[in-house]
């Protein structure tokens, strides 16, 4: 193990504190970049295959050619992880537009892998839910994990003023996502429902749908209207950093949280995550 | 004059080749940043006051507190310009979200001023116009010069496939702008017309409206529909780097270009620019 925490930047491992990119990079000049972010438990990157699948898909849609194959990416990620012992951390894999002679044309994207401190997610399902404030907004190229969080950052003061915990994007009343989480509801007959289109397909979302199937909770991916959330039995959001978080309020609508289905899914997801960690122990 | 071309980055002048920003900056991580870009003729930054007005307004709307006042910005810009003798160049003033402990909260934005090579604009109005391809898209926070050019960069292969020279954004048929230019038309009675809302208010746009008034061409800023461009007498776009560029085609609609009003505006604008340069000679 190295004495210095390392980052990988554009072809070389460097001390993490020195990780920087040229100002003329399209990632900064034109906001053109993708990333993925995953939680690392000890030295195990959680659901790495899923994150790499999404990262490679994002790169493809954004027409950002990658100099590394999947195995090359994995080995960079492991080398960054192994440079410092941390109980919980986050790995950010960033791919930017790189240099460009005309400020538009992509030639050689820059890859960076950095590790960031992360608080451990709670050990059990949070006993009190969070409040969401809805906002009409459709993310650009929503199936891609771009670095475009312009509206999310810009809306933070608006969110604080309203006393909310997170923003819920909808497009003309169709539920999309929170800036860093997916949204689920449990409907009146006990179905698990989550939006199908117009949002980033989250890795925790995918895993929650898988564990739901395993424990016999029927689920459906389809268009979801904002009013459906208001009258849902349960609502929760999912993310790689926090797993499952119950929602107790959406704008002025109060919900009971956490609900029994959310609890079952939390328990099953936690067991699933622990099995993953055992299977991938390094 | 220094031996090395300089850039200003986050509090210090550094060799231009070393200008970089930390990867964890919100400008890269969250695409949260603004900029302004101006043409420099010799050592004179053109229409600097207008560009600084817009830059300060952009910073304000984006809630990015600036450590420098207007005079401080001017003196940084001049120091960067004076570090290298160039006939024509571009100055980029960038303000990013800076570091953030939670990846969202803005505390101390980072300012950078870099100079980039630039071809001189043509000495006379281009004799042949360009072709625009229309695309339904509304820029986020359109009155702000954000670094968000995600769609513009992403659409470049689409534009090339169609053989177009630039993209024309419209929102449900309402003309907005080109990614780096404003759009004008001359209507059937000789009025100069340009969109009023939903686009970035360009500095060349502002100056063209001013010279139009001076030479007696009536103008109006209002909603403009795509169909109006198709049947316009003349269409042109404006930008700081290219002044005025005639448009000869929009999708499948052919226009005559350049037209007489465009030519009058070019002549008046060029004289206006030369007067500015004389008045601001350093």
Helix content of chain A: 25-40%
CATH superfamily of the largest domain in chain A: D-amino Acid Aminotransferase, subunit A, domain 2
| N to C succession of SSEs of chain A | EEEHEEHHEEEHHEEEEHEHEEEH
Tertiary shape of chain A: globular
DSSP strand (E) fraction of chain A?
Answer: 25-35%
Task: Please give the number of β-strands of chain A.
Answer: 16
Major sheet characteristics of chain A: 9 strands, mixed
Determine the CATH topology of the largest domain in chain A. Answer: D-amino Acid Aminotransferase, Chain A, domain 2
What is the count of helical runs of chain A?
8
Radius of gyration of chain A: 19 Å
Structural class of chain A: alpha+beta
Overall mean confidence score, pLDDT of chain A:
97
Termini distance of chain A?
14 Å
CATH-defined architecture of the largest domain in chain A = Alpha-Beta Barrel
Question: Largest interface, with Cβ-Cβ < 8 Å?
Answer: A-B, 43 and 43 residues
What does this protein structure show overall?
Two copies of one chain form a homodimer. By secondary structure, chain A is an alpha+beta fold. The first copy, chain A, folds into two domains: 112 residues, D-amino Acid Aminotransferase, Chain A, domain 1; 148 residues, D-amino Acid Aminotransferase, Chain A, domain 2. Chain A contains eight helices and 16 strands. In chain A, strands 8, 9, 10, 11, 12, 13, 14, 15 and 16 form a nine-stranded mixed beta sheet that branches. In chain A, helix 6 packs across helix 8. The longest helix of chain A has 20 residues. Chain A is globular. Chain A starts with 5 loop residues before the first strand and ends with a helix. The mean pLDDT of chain A is 97. At the A-B interface, strand 3, helix 1, strand 6, strand 7 and helix 4 of A face strand 3, helix 1, strand 6, strand 7 and helix 4 of B.
């Amino acid at each position: 193990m190295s004495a210095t925490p390392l980052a990988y930047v554009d072809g070389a491992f460097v001390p993490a504190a020195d990780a920087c990119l040229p100002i003329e990079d399209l990632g900064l000049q034109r906001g053109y970049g993708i990333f993925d972010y995953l939680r690392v438990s000890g030295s195990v990157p959680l659901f790495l295959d899923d994150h790499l699948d999404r990262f490679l898909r994002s790169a493809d849609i954004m027409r950002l050619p990658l100099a590394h194959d999947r195995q090359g990416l994995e080995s960079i990620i492991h080398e960054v992880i192994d440079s410092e012992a941390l109980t919980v951390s986050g790995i950010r894999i960033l791919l930017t537009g790189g240099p460009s002679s005309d400020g538009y044309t992509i030639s050689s994207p820059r890859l960076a892998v950095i590790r960031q401190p992360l608080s451990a997610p709670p050990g059990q399902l949070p006993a009190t839910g969070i409040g969401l404030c809805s906002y009409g907004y459709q993310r650009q190229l929503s199936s891609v994990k771009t670095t475009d969080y312009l509206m999310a950052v810009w809306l933070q003061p608006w969110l604080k003023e309203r006393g909310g915990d997170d923003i819920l994007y909808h497009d003309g009343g169709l539920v999309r996502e929170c800036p860093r989480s997916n949204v689920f509801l449990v409907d009146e007959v006990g179905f698990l429902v989550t939006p199908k289109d117009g949002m980033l397909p989250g890795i925790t979302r995918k895993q929650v749908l898988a564990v739901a199937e395993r424990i016999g909770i029927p689920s459906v991916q389809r268009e979801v209207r904002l009013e459906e959330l208001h009258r849902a039995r349960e609502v929760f959001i999912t993310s790689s950093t926090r797993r499952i978080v119950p929602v107790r309020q959406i704008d002025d609508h109060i919900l009971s949280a956490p609900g029994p289905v959310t609890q079952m899914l939390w328990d099953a997801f936690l067991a699933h995550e622990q099995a993953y960690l055992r299977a991938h122990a390094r």
